[in-house]
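Good morning C.,

I know you're traveling, so I'll keep this short. The sequence:
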Amino acid sequence: MDMNSPETELRTLMLASQDGDAAAHRVLLERLSRHLRAYYKGKLARIGRGPTEAEDLVQEAVLAIHIQRHTYDPNEPFTPWVHAIARYKLIDFLRRNRASVADVPIDEANEVTANDDHLNAESSFDLRRLLKLLPKKMQCAIVAVKLDGLSVAEAARRCRTSESGVKVNIHRGLKALAALIAQRAQT
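The tokens, ready to paste straight into the viewer:
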């Protein structure tokens, strides 16, 4: 295996991250963010969706990778594990937005690391603790749509705000969560 391949580099960072190396974890999440951003932008452009939605998916996937990193088996290749998470997040997005999965080819496992484009929680309990650091409206929107699987319209009713308010709160909230995770990875 090529020692400079994305698989080798990312797997090495992941193993160091699993061993508690906060700097390696931070670098891993930064590199994965770039790869995932390119992946999601390409997929969503095919169905007329924009970079804001791609960025939301990047933040969701990075958060999921951060929270689920303890489930990665070091005896297995790393990028297929990342692709499975990225693919799940994409399918979930398409389902929430009533888009057809058939419109977006989602099976190319190597695409997650094919292009480049310009965290210590271990469980959903830690995610809930991080969420409590966000303003209430952001918490409500993220929990309703991202965790409970409600549509944006349903979340707007639950959170007593407009649909655009839900979208803005999710976008800003995911960015804030990513920043909190990165900040905690540095300490």
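Safe travels,
E.
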